[in-house]
Amino acid sequence: MKVNLLDFDRAGLERYFAAIGEKPFRARQVLHWIHQRGASDFAAMTDIAKSLRTRLAESAEIRPPQAVGDSTAADDTRKWLIKVDGANAVDAVFIPETGRGTLCVSSQAGCVLDCAFCSTGKQGFNRNLSTAEIIGQLWMANRVLGRRQGAERPITNVVLMGMGEPLLNLDAVLPALHLMLDDDAYGLSRRRVTVSTSGVVPGMDRLARECPVALAVSLHAPNDSLRDRLVPVNRKYPLRDLLAACRRYLQRAPRDFITFEYVMLDGVNDSPAHARELLAIAARVRCKFNLIPFNPFTDSGFRRSSPDCMRRFAEVLQQAGLTVTTRKTRGEAIDAACGQLAGEVADRTRRGARRAPIPILELNS
Ligand code: SAH
Ligand code: SF4
Question: Rounded mean pLDDT of 286-309?
């Protein structure tokens, strides 16, 4: 079986070249070809001796996961369904905005954490993605989008907010993050790469040590009793531990605040009283709030809060001096909005069997 070079960050490639008796500087050259030029063929790597190219082609390959679906919404949000094996496919979503373009990347096929309002969670879990499957989403999107839009790189920001909990797959996520930051690969600054977590405390500490990028924490509730229900991982890492981990993270973070994501669920977590309770949390961690209108999916059992209710909620926070943004919903018609990503997951946790099935995504092509 050939080694897939998309699985390696710079350190991994250096180890690979050392193992085959080559100089470590080859790592830089190959990184550049694969990730900056989008090469998938060793024959294209003209500054590498032909004999080495032939040798590489015999033992290694550049094998990205395959896009099997591609749909674009009226607002230009674009979603790819990416097949990672015979039974599983994950989503990657590109969100163009004026002056920037964000790629939302998946880290697992499914998710074990089972948040009450999330369609990925409801699909159950199959497996972790490999580094190649994670960075392959960026590699593929860059190739597809780059070709259309000329020389300028269309992807300026990456968020790990697709399917899965990135901090439960750090062995594969960390090399992918290193590649996103590496100047010979994607060269993004730490502030432009965001990991979103539902609050896996040991993972937050490891990320802080090994690759502190911008951090978003899915808070969704101002107290433990409600958060236990909405974000079940809270039973393991309650708010007190989570907030302490946020403070530790801030000592290494590229920004001086944590972004708290808060999905607005009608009649569940969206009253002014809930907002006032959040002020106590905000007093303990430097933070900004990102309110996310709930994106519905079949049999979710939740409704989106009204715009009025969201405005009143935001006002309570703003009046206390906090920065609050409300996320615009993008790509809803193609099920590409936050929490709607369901891909195709061959659930091994049998969660799906205990619940109503979710229809297979309809794709444009
Ligand atoms: N597992 C990570 C990252 C993926 S989810 C996490 O939970 O943070 C990315 C974001 O989408 C999270 O904030 C998540 O809570 C939110 N989300 C999940 N389901 C949603 C839904 N139906 N509507 C709106 N946001 C949702
Ligand atoms: Fe998993 Fe995040 Fe969905 Fe929760 S919100 S089930 S952690 S993907």
Answer: 94
